[in-house]
Task: structure prediction
Amino acid sequence: MEFLYQTVKEIIETGRVGTPVFVRFIVQIMPSGEHILDTLARFLVIAGSWLASIPIRVYVQHKENSAQITASVEYTGGQTALVSINIANILTSRIDLMMIGNKGALYQDGEMMPPGFDIDFEPLSIPEWLMDAIEQSLFAGKPVSIEEVVDFE
Amino acid sequence: MSKTKPYGILLIAGLMTHQENYADFFLADPRCKLIAVADESDVPTRRADLNRKFASEKNLPYISDLDEALELEDVDIVSVCAEHERRGRVAVKCARAGKHIYLDKPMAYSVADASEIVSAVESSGVKSQVYSMVHSSWAQKAKRAVESSAIGELIAIHCDILFAKGYTSDSISRKPRNQDPYPKRFTFIDSKRELRATGVYSVGLIRWITGAEVKTVFGVTGNYFFEEHLHNHVEDFGILAMKLGSDVVATISAGRIGYTSHPSHGPMRVHLVGTKGVMTFDAYNPRIEVYTNEPSWAPPQMNPEDPMGFWNNTYKNSKPKKTWIPISTNQRYNNDVSYFIDCIESNLDSEVSAKDGAAQVEILMAGYLSAATGNVVSLPIPKE
Result:
């Protein structure tokens, strides 16, 4: 995951796709023992890093008794992200990525990740307020404004 | 019921509408015959001129009085491409005149208009169909995957249909969009409300593939790419997150992302998440990728009458992108219209009838309401 994260980051830094405005992740991973909310948070941090922005609103959806979770996020600059994490008994992980900038786009078309692909890569720490927002939205079944969960002091 | 005479087709509105495409669909089906182009008598001069020019190009008469055109006995089907704001009124009139109606998407301006079209269709006993992508091979495969339980029980469905057209701008400031909860105007020369214009395809596919109704909608709209959209206070991008009747989670992204953002027409794909894993169906898979020493593709010269490249006719001399060549696979229908004619002949309702079109309109309008308020909107919404 570190290589994917870095490669996308480096392309963004060249300016070839302009300013990133939208990230779509469809992630399918093997059960690892990590809680699905932590995995979701990690991918939201990655998306936020590429978008160079922080969320203002997070809406998390989950179908009961399923190993799937989907987050819709709006960021301070108006950017958006849709991140879906799905845990399944599969042989290799799979990540489908679409990142759209105002001058171009990046696509990673759901290729199977090679054995040993490190899904647990954590490029940046997961802020506590993001976990709180995810949990609150999931519990309430509605979008959560980050202002409601962050103590800006 | 099979007719001995061809079905007579009346075309409402002409150039710079999707009638440019639909007329050719009808022409391609030997069971159909174009009769005339027509419109309401009080349309603006520009619209009337575009209609007349289209009629002339197709060697058809132009009838500038819709009532008069609907009295023609050899008209069986009306293809309705009137602008959104008057599409409901025109479609209702055609259905009440006993004509089958083929509707441009989204089929109506408002939930109220959509409801009136459905009532007119039902009370007149005519057939209706809204243009959609359900006959594309990738959509058909996705539906089969759900129906055959190839993915196990469906948990989530995600659909991205984005159009790689238009000349993007670097000068749009990054800030959350201030969305009008009840948008009223949809017709501009240089922009469309893209959540509606392109999102309608994804919303339609999700309902058709799953066979489930949408219960709740959360939406966000954005201005990312085009000064034209910003100037007209309409979005060029949007996302929806929905909950379906079976508690299946559904999301879409929709919009116009610029000519240079995709090797072909733009991303078009659906992801199915089931208990057995994820399956993706893509309009460009399977495909051949072609790389040659030909000059690289370049966007066409901007036509100020159609800067976003909405219409085929204004860019008919532009060169297509040729790097990705999808491998044709068997499709049940190559032509959306032929399916509609089959429905009429078999006295069956279309799988994308006016009733489905009305549901699409309601979901999209709920998306605007959600984007304006930041809240999840439950369906049904009031007929504003």
About this structure: The beta strands of chain A are 20-29, 55-61, 68-75, 80-87, 94-101, 105-112, 144-145.
